[in-house]
Amino acid sequence: MGNFTFEEMNLMCIYNTGSRTGLIDSLREMRGELSPEETELRELTDSALCKLQTMTDDEFAELELYPDFDQ
Fold it and tell me: What pLDDT is attached to residue 66?
């Protein structure tokens, strides 16, 4: 289903709007505000967006998007 990394999951927790399409829009908006030097965050965002775009809304609903501060 997406095989998101720990970092991608945390990023999605921060920008989660409650829906897959809302999260995609939120991540795209954030990505547009990144400076050219923020290449690592840009690559992380691009990777998460790619995976979100290929999954269904039902698959998205199965994700547990709660930040894991213990890792």
Answer: 77
